[in-house]
């Protein structure tokens, strides 16, 4: 059996019913498949939890953090909900678009970065909040975009 | 900071100590409340929570002790009893549970243990929103320390009582903050709310009795047990006992979380503590309890932040998230952005919410772009009315209430868009062109269709 299968079994043992482990299992599978869930990932999770691939896909499609298409090596998510919007989130988003040469929702041709808007991340008093590879940065201004991108480019990931 | 003149309860000690460490938390009396509770009758612990008048801090404000009293006693049920802690903080404007997990994770764990003991539960689940990765790691580390010290697991503190705590990460869905959707999600399903009754107290997680409480509510339990319900009830005002960790954001100089006694005024929070409105701008509107609550205007600035006073002003205290909005913001654009959020987060189960949020967005878009006709504002209000109270969970209401309030409180501004055939702000509104996730998805789909 694979390492992923064993990891999923460990997680599933925490719950009275194994199906509860489907979200953590999908997360593990997504990590193992380079940040997204190809058809093979659903088969692996289904096998490990004795569910069907279709069921696993139906769960994954409900949640924003599961990617059903390939994504870049680094994920930049700019909050554009109201608190961040009021303090300039759109300008910050546009600075990342121009720095990366793509629009929100797209991945750079070299596969390094995916940029997208995201609903409220929970850092409202310190906007604009930008989540970079799932780590929050606060007070991100347009002029910070190039530095953030450079840091991520050289980060271990 | 002016806020230090107020006694803190939930965040007490966190300014002077690194309370993420067990040794430091013990230095400020940590886990003594658990010892005390384990030496008390379950009913006596519950009586303290009832006496405290602690109301749920997630948004609905239901009395915590009463909710706990709905759970059957262990001798009344053959099923396991579960405690589930809602750490799926996602209401726009709200970021206080995140700070509580970051700074006082052990107070959350201690509160979870006391509450579990009180309802006769041996199993706690903490459902943390997926995006809160750092907070998950902090709570996980604190839990590991507590486990090593014999505070969690088998035979807690030698009492013979067992209690496990499992951290469960969500995966990005606002709706999972709704308690029955949270349970569905925790059972490994799409997070779609359940019909109530049965209420979770009788049939919750795995169809077993389940108590669900918010992070801040649970983190308030240890100080109440330490000093007594009557002590806690002295803080705040009648019917709104205690402190709240208010989240302040938007057009304000010092955004952040501030733990303050309930009953403090919006003016004190926004001006004295928050430093007022920056850039010499004028306050225009205030969202007092997260994005789902009806808007207040600058005239309401002296309203007290407690359940009754905010209710009397026509809104709700909700999650305690105050968003200040200055005079650069176009209220139609604000309405559009809020409606887009709820359209994005509607789970799709109930027709009025699934279809209604989309219609709200369509109509507001027409108003904003100058394509609306006379009568469209009444149409918008009619759509809101057809959502209100007609869905299984409050998400539809959470969209309809604020949007209807924007039209109600700022009708002239909406009307001006229709009369002038454009946005009177031109491109000068602070919310101009803001791109939401639903628009981003729609754009990608349109382009895919063109290519195909």
Question: How would you portray this structure in words?
Answer:
- The complex is a heterodimer of chains A (157) and B (452).
- Chain A has 157 residues and is of the alpha+beta class.
- Chain A has helices at residues 3-12, 22-32, 39-49, 53-60, 82-86, 89-100, 145-153, and strands at 74-79, 113-118, 130-132, 135-137.
- In chain A, strands 2-1-3-4 form a 4-stranded mixed beta sheet, covered by helices on one side.
- In chain A, α1 (3-12) packs across α3 (39-49), α2 (22-32) packs across α3 (39-49) and α3 (39-49) packs across α4 (53-60).
- In chain B, α2 crosses α10 (221-227) and α15 (351-368) packs antiparallel against α16 (376-387).
- The longest helix of chain B is centred in the C-terminal third of the chain and has 18 residues, at 351-368.
- Chain B is α/β, with parallel strands linked by helices.
- The interface between A and B is large, with 49 and 67 residues.
């Amino acid at each position: 059996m694979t390492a992923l299968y064993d990891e999923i079994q460990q997680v599933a043992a925490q719950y009275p019913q194994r199906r509860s482990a489907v979200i953590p299992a999908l997360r593990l599978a997504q990590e193992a498949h380079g940040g997204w869930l190809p058809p093979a990932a659903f088969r692996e999770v289904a096998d490990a939890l004795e569910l069907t691939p279709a069921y696993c896909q139906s769960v994954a499609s409900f949640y924003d953090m599961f990617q059903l298409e390939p994504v870049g090596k680094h994920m930049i998510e700019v909050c554009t909900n109201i608190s961040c919007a009021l303090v300039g989130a759109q300008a910050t988003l546009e600075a990342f678009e121009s720095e990366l040469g793509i629009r929100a929702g797209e991945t750079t041709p070299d596969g390094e970065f995916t940029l997208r808007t995201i609903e409220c991340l929970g850092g409202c008093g310190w906007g604009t909040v930008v989540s970079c590879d799932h780590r929050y940065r606060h007070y991100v201004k347009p002029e910070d975009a190039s530095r953030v991108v450079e840091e991520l480019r050289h980060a271990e990931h | 900071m002016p806020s230090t003149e107020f006694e803190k309860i939930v965040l007490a000690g966190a300014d002077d100590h690194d309370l993420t460490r067990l040794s430091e938390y013990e230095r400020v009396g940590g886990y003594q409340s658990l010892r005390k509770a384990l030496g008390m009758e379950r009913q006596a612990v519950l009586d303290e929570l009832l006496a405290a008048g602690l109301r749920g801090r997630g948004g609905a404000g239901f009395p915590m002790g009463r909710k706990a009293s709905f759970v059957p006693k262990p001798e009344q049920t053959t099923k396991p009893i579960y405690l589930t802690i809602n750490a799926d903080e996602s209401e726009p404007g709200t970021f206080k549970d995140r700070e509580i997990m970051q700074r006082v994770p052990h107070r959350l764990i201690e509160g979870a243990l006391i509450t579990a003991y009180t309802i006769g539960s041996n199993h706690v689940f903490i459902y943390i929103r997926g995006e809160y990765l750092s907070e998950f790691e902090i709570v996980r580390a604190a839990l590991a320390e507590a486990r090593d010290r014999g505070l969690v697991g088998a035979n807690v503190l030698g009492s013979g009582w067992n209690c496990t705590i499992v951290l469960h990460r969500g995966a990005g869905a606002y709706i999972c903050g709704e308690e029955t959707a949270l349970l569905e999600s925790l059972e490994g399903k799409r997070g779609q709310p359940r019909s109530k009754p049965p209420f979770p107290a009788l049939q919750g997680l795995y169809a077993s009795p389940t108590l669900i409480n918010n992070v801040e509510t649970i983190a308030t339990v240890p100080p109440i047990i330490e000093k007594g319900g009557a002590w806690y009830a002295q803080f705040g005002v009648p019917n709104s006992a205690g402190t709240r960790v208010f989240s302040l954001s938007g057009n304000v100089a010092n955004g952040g979380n501030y733990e303050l006694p309930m009953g403090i005024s919006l003016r004190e929070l926004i001006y004295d503590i928050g430093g007022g409105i920056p850039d010499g701008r004028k306050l225009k509107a205030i969202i007092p309890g997260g994005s789902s609550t009806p808007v207040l205007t600058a005239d309401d600035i002296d309203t007290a932040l407690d359940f009754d006073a905010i209710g009397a002003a026509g809104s709700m205290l909700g999650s305690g998230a105050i968003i200040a909005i200055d005079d650069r913001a176009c209220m139609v654009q604000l309405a559009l952005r809020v409606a887009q959020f709820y359209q994005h987060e509607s789970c799709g189960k109930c027709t009025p919410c699934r279809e209604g949020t989309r219609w709200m967005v369509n109509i507001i878009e027409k108003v904003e772009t100058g394509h609306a006709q006379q009568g469209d504002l009444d149409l918008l209000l009619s759509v809101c009315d057809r959502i209100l109270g007609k869905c299984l969970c409050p998400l539809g209401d959470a969209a309809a209430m604020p949007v209807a309030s924007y039209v109600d409180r700022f009708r002239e501004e909406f009307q001006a868009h229709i009369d002038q055939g454009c946005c009177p702000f031109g491109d000068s509104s602070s919310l101009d062109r803001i791109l939401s996730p639903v628009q981003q998805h729609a754009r990608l789909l349109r382009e895919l269709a063109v290519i195909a």
